[in-house]
Every structure is written in structure tokens, then in C-alpha cells.
Amino acid sequence: MFFAVMDTVTPRREWTGDTAGAGVLLVDSITQLEASDAGAIVVTGSHGGSSSASYALQYPMALVVFNDAGVGKDQAGIVALQLLQQQGRAAAAVAHHSARIGDAMDGWQNGVLSHVNALAAALGLRPGSLLRDVLR
Fold first, then answer.
1. Distance CA 20, CA 107 (A)
2. How many whole angstroms separate alpha carbon 69 and alpha carbon 132?
3. Could you give the CA distance from residue 12 to residue 104 in angstroms, rounded to a whole number?
4. Could you report the per-residue pLDDT of 10-21, keeping only the tens digit for each?
5. Contacts of 37 (CB under 8 A, 6+ apart)
6. Which of 12, 49, 51, 93 has minimal Cβ neighbours within 10 Å of its Cβ?
7. Is 98 helix (H, G, I), strand (E, B) or coil?
């Protein structure tokens, strides 16, 4: 029964109107990115693992924010931040205890930054900050 219910859930993909310009793209899964999203600020509910980094690197985003998923062994939940930094991309993660994994809207509304790469720090993102406030 549980799997039947999960099959009917459509991952969220929407733009916020809360910031100047086009807003922030919310995607529950990093796999939802499209070529037309290039240059966007993206908040995803996905973990910041290496597989997520490969999706995020497909298109040049202004910033990608993941869920730290508890960070995990060998920092597996945030390794994307380092991998994106190596490719000249800004990336950050919100704390798993502040936002549900897989829920971009919760990350946008309640996410508290836990980790940022150097490029994201240069944009003014700091651990401990409420994501939504920083991106406004």
C-alpha cells in the first residue's frame, strides 16, 4: 500500500516569487533540472552526495542548495559542495533537522544553512543563516 501511494506523488518543481528577478527554482529532486534552468538559483530537497553533484553539474547554475542529509560517513551527504567548488560552482546545504529531505519548499521556508562552499560564502551565505533570508 505504501508504494502505491508513493507512485502517485509528483515531485515539486516551481519558482518562488520572493526574490528580485525570476525568483528561486524549487525542485524536490535534483534530477528535475532542465537546460532552460541554467543560471538559476536552485533549492533542492536532494542530499548533497556525489550523484546529486553530477546532476547539478549538467547545467551552470548560479547557486545550488542541497539538504545535508545528516552529513553521513566521510561527509557523503555534502560532498557535492566540494565537487561543485572544484568546477567553479557555488553550493550550500541546509541542515536535515531544519528541513525535510526531498522537500524543496520546506528547505526554502525553514532551511538553516549548515555548510557552504567557498564560492557560496563569497556570495554571502553563512552557516547558521536562514536560507530564505539570505537569498532575499
1. 19
2. 19
3. 8
4. 667 667 775 444
5. 25, 59, 61
6. 51
7. coil
CA 12/CA 32 separation, integer angstroms: 9
Q: Using an 8 Å Cβ cutoff, are 110 and 126 in contact? A: no
Cell numbers standing for residue 82: 566540494
Query: How much is the average pLDDT of 120-126?
Result: 97
CB atoms within 10 A of CB 95: 21
Using the predicted structure, report yes or no on whether residue 29 has a pLDDT greater than 70. Answer: yes
- 3-state class (DSSP) for residue 62: coil
> What is residue 54's three-state secondary structure?
helix
Confidence of residue 136 (pLDDT cuts 50, 70, 90): confident
pLDDT at residue 5, as a whole number: 46
